[in-house]
Specification:
By secondary structure, the chain is mainly alpha-helical. It has one domain: Alpha/Beta hydrolase fold, catalytic domain (Rossmann fold, 3-Layer(aba) Sandwich), CATH 3.40.50. 56% of the residues lie in helices and 10% in strands. It is built from seven helices and three strands. The protein has a three-stranded parallel beta sheet with strand order 1-2-3. α5 links the parallel β2 and β3. The protein is globular, with a radius of gyration of 16 Å. The two termini are 26 Å apart.
């Protein structure tokens, strides 16, 4: 069963850009290889450096502990699949899924913002700005939750 058959709304956040695709595929390969060769900590450091305006300070201690338990798994099993995902634009349109893309206001024109805007254009859907940057849910959880809520309310869901 695909998600299209069980949902009618999706908020898509920051996929990879099509422009300069090989550059970003190479980036993902390099980060993945580093995670396998040098460990998740080395890969995480390099990956985080690619994000725009993300604080260079540790996550809050409770969050840091929970995340660190998952980062190794993320790099081994999810990282490449996540960045390799290409949404089926026609399928989304055919299933009449209401789409809204979201970017972090402080992410400037980062690669993931460019990709998200391109996706919104291809889908013919709005792109909304959330406060903060790429990891806003970690650093600003209340603002992130409120932005999700306002986005859903603004598109007819309460």
């Amino acid at each position: 069963m695909s998600y299209e058959s069980i949902t009618d709304t999706k908020i898509e956040a920051e996929p990879l850009p099509k422009a300069d695709a090989e550059k970003w595929h190479s980036f993902v390969r390099d980060i993945y290889t580093k995670s396998q060769r040098d460990g998740w900590q080395a890969a995480q450091t390099e990956f985080m450096a690619s994000l725009i305006n993300v604080p260079d300070t540790p996550y809050p201690p409770d969050l840091n502990e929970r995340i660190s338990l998952n980062v190794d798994f993320f790099f081994k099993h999810e990282f490449r699949a996540f960045f390799g995902y290409l949404p089926n634009i026609e399928s989304i349109r055919n299933y009449c899924v209401k789409m809204v893309t979201a970017t972090g206001r402080d992410s400037d024109d980062a690669y993931y913002v460019q990709a998200t805007r391109a996706l919104a254009t291809n889908l013919g859907c709005p792109n909304v700005e959330f406060p903060g940057h790429h990891d806003v849910s970690f650093w600003m959880p209340e603002e992130f939750a409120n932005s999700i809520w306002r986005t859903l309310e603004g598109h007819g869901y309460e």
